[in-house]
Amino acid sequence: LYGSQTFKLDLVMMGVFVLGVIAAIMYVFSSWLEKKIIKY
After folding, report:
1. Residue-number span of the structural domain to which 7 is assigned
2. How confident is the model over 1-40, as pLDDT tens digits?
């Protein structure tokens, strides 16, 4: 029971981490795109 609980927690933390990384990448990409659009 305890092992499955820690596994679930690890899975949740991993999902949160992955979502954070994806959000950061999208933010950087959108800001870079904005700079390119403003330039021209």
Report:
1. 1-40
2. 567 777 888 999 999 999 999 999 999 999 999 998 887 6
Note the pTM of the prediction, 2 decimals: 0.62
d(CA 15, CA 36): 31
Q: 10-27 burial, b if ≥16 CB within 10 A, otherwise e?
A: eeeeeeeeeeeeeeeeee
Structure tokens at 5: 């609980």
Number of structural domains (the chain) is 1
